[in-house]
Design goal:
409 residues, 8-stranded mixed beta sheet, 6-stranded mixed beta sheet, 20 strands
Length: 409
């Protein structure tokens, strides 16, 4: 999957997408004329910020209301916040860009099967209650059926693609749901990307519990995250990657916080000095580099040239992309495993944020991730060996190590 460069831009009218018309005040960190999809990016920033507020609201009631904690059939925890974010984002994007399809993680099947009381479906009503005051429904009253339809617009079988390049949104409503469900403020991310004719055009990530002052080298807990401000990260092809902070409680944003800052990957050029992220579900021994390096999670360890530092980040893949794009980590490496399906929403927005910050993303063979490999649904990717995300400087060296130690894979 390529990143959309300015040299490959097509005239806007070729997209057959209506121009964005909204009262949203442009708040992008670069002039609109430099970004072909500034209207779409402006809308994406606004809806991701609202989605993060929804997550914070649900989190506050999580421990006091068991109905806010659900369990899907595949045993992956999912909350009212997941469904609420997907419904909110789907409704807003359909209102503003009705002809652009929407690919997202959830569908409404689990909600529809929920228990009922005198007021109807308990789970559906719970989702409705967390989004009703956050949706612009064009003056029309929002109904539960609207919410279910919005969720299903991004679900499996909602749209059928073909082998031709397509334009569509990709959403991960909450990446790192297990982190969201922790009693502590562990990291989780709302991620939204726009794919245009087969190329990544823009991306927005919101991380409500991101801490700007403390490098997360220990497991997240209340003490570590209490002073976190949260961030929004945005990227647009050819315009760089940028972040701004917002209040930990998602309240009023003061002038100092509401300032965009350009992001760059770190400049580490020594492999043993690089800061690594790996999936929470995998161990260092599964990574080919373990043939040459041992690992530590203690940043204060005196490390020699055979020991690298691992950064536990209490979240899914998108937070690791955020770590690399912001320069907090040098490398994120994920091994493909036979029993694990790799989903497009876990990577699409991260790819453009890292790329525009100066980094590089590929599979373990050095090829770009093919987000269109799933030609019909655009929901699954098949990276050879796994996914490698780096500051760019270390990319080829790590690929060489992987190739030389293929027996570990």
């Amino acid at each position: 999957m390529a990143i959309l460069h300015s040299s490959s831009y097509l005239p806007v009218r070729r997209l057959a997408v209506p121009l964005f018309r909204s009262s949203i005040r442009s708040s992008l960190p670069f002039p609109a004329e430099k970004a072909r999809f500034h209207r779409e990016l402006d809308a994406a920033v606004d809806v991701v910020e609202r989605a993060c507020r929804l997550c914070v609201d649900v989190k506050k009631s999580l421990l006091s209301d068991d109905r806010r904690i659900l369990e899907k059939n595949d045993q992956t925890p999912v909350t009212v916040a997941d469904f609420g974010v997907q419904a909110l984002v789907s409704l807003e994007l359909k209102r503003l860009f009705p002809s652009i399809p929407f690919v997202a993680e959830e569908d409404s099947g689990f909600l529809r099967s929920g228990d009922k009381d005198n007021n109807g479906n308990v789970l559906v009503n719970a989702v409705y209650s967390v989004i009703v005051d956050k949706v612009n429904n064009g003056g029309e009253p929002l109904t539960s059926d609207d919410v279910l339809e919005a969720i299903d617009r991004g679900g499996k079988d909602a749209v059928s693609f073909d082998s031709k390049p397509a334009t569509y949104w990709v959403l991960d409503p909450i990446d790192g749901t297990r982190g969201f469900l922790k009693g502590s403020d562990a990291l989780y991310v709302v991620g939204l990307a726009l794919i245009v004719k087969g190329e990544i055009a823009l991306g927005v990530m919101g991380c409500p519990n991101w801490n700007n002052d403390i490098l997360p080298t220990e497991k997240c807990d209340d003490k570590v995250s209490a002073s976190g401000l949260g961030i929004i990260m945005v990227a647009h092809a050819g315009c760089g990657t940028w972040t701004k902070s917002f209040s930990h409680v998602m309240g009023d944003i003061d002038g100092a916080q509401n300032v965009w800052k350009r992001c760059f990957v770190d400049s580490c050029s020594l492999l043993h000095r690089a800061r690594f992220c790996i999936p929470d579900s995998q161990t260092w021994e599964l990574i080919p580099l373990s043939a040459l390096f041992s690992s530590t999670v203690n940043k204060d360890d005196h490390r020699d040239e055979k020991v690298i530092l691992l950064l536990p980040t209490c979240c899914g893949s998108l937070c690791k992309y955020l770590m690399v794009a912001s320069g907090r980590a040098s490398v994120f490496i994920l091994r493909s495993r036979t029993q694990t399906v790799i989903k497009v929403w876990d990577h699409a927005v991260g790819v453009i944020c890292v790329h525009e910050a100066g980094g590089q993303v590929s599979d373990w063979s050095g090829d770009q991730l093919d987000l269109a490999a799933d030609q019909r649904e655009r929901r699954i990717i098949f990276p050879s060996g796994g996914v490698l995300v780096t500051n760019g400087i270390l990319h080829e060296e790590i690929l060489d190590v992987i190739s030389s130690n293929s027996s570990v894979v």
